[in-house]
């Protein structure tokens, strides 16, 4: 089996990401290699979609290897990142007798990573956790150490920075993903290429078929490179002082679409796909990027079945107003991440609002 590995460099909080087809069979081996022994009791946290697919297999293999394993299953979807589910998981952790040496396993997508990671960050002031991502989008949440739950007044407002002990990414588990979730994951992979790596973008353009069908030797490399690009940015800026803002390409537009549709019509990946297309068009109009970059961006996203056209039912004025409510807005100024070229972006401060509005009116048609 070929395994891609990547070390996320964060001084004493550095950790490896293992990526490969069938890695769920190797969890106990990887645990031993990293010093997680039978003396460490384990709690697997997963959701109702993932549990019937992968929980029993993982639990049984770990039990066979001699580990004490408990599991907790929460409802699937964003609503699980709530105070009530968090409290319920804390109750399960206490009842299961977890101590400071216990390890929490987050088996699922970004929701489970964020939720189980926040449980791990706060249980007894912090215990180790391992991410076992089962969505493509979770390549993004597996790097950076941000863990959180939501408040009714906003997403991810209650959280911490808590780095995992390791990330074990079994690409075989991605085959059961619904198509829209798969496309959403590619949106963030493409974003990482557009931010920092033109050669990677070329490769994503040339290998749509093997990537879309999740072929081993392709999808593992794409995940690795997506994680590597994010890891480079995060290592330079662990607590989000500067560079990390570059990761928001397409996100100020995207968050506005998500918020206005109350997170129903478009998922995150779809919203940022439209956002990245708009950012590229805006960069051309402002003379920041050469003509052609917007067409190329749009074509790439569309080849991974992502939407790039203005979504129906949104008024440009409303979108602009929502963009200005984004938490990244500083002192009323609209700061946007815009491309300079494929593989190169920058934060543009105080972008002219009229240009943004005009662009949105034009593409709305
Ligand atoms: P998710 O965890 O809700 O997964 C999407 C859907 O797919 C869910 O219904 C889930 O049950 C299902 N699913 C997961 N794996 C599956 C599989 N292998 N087969 C079939 N179904 C499967 O969402 P997501 O898109 O993975 O992540 C989104 C979340 O990640 C958001 O809450 C976002 O805030 C968070 N996030 C965090 C970071 C970070 O840095 N911490 C970065 C990006 C996103
Ligand atoms: Mg994102």
Kindly report how far apart the N and C termini lie.
50 Å
Overall geometry comes to globular
Amount of beta strand: 15-25%
How many helix segments?
14
Run of helices and strands: EEHEHEHEHEHEEEHHHHHHHHEEH
Distinct small-molecule ligands in the complex: nicotinamide-adenine-dinucleotide, magnesium ion
Number of strands: 11
List low-pLDDT spans. Answer: none
What structural category do the secondary elements indicate? alpha/beta
Major sheet details: 7 strands, mixed
Mean of pLDDT = 95
Radius of gyration (CA) equals 20 Å
**What is the helical fraction, as a range of percent?**
40-55%
InterPro entries: Dehydroquinate_synthase, DHQ_synth_AroB, DHQ_synth_fam, DHQS/DOIS_N, DHQS_C
Keywords: Amino-acid biosynthesis, Aromatic amino acid biosynthesis, Cobalt, Cytoplasm, Lyase, Metal-binding, NAD, Nucleotide-binding, Zinc
Catalytic activity: 7-phospho-2-dehydro-3-deoxy-D-arabino-heptonate = 3-dehydroquinate + phosphate
Pathway: Metabolic intermediate biosynthesis; chorismate biosynthesis; chorismate from D-erythrose 4-phosphate and phosphoenolpyruvate: step 2/7
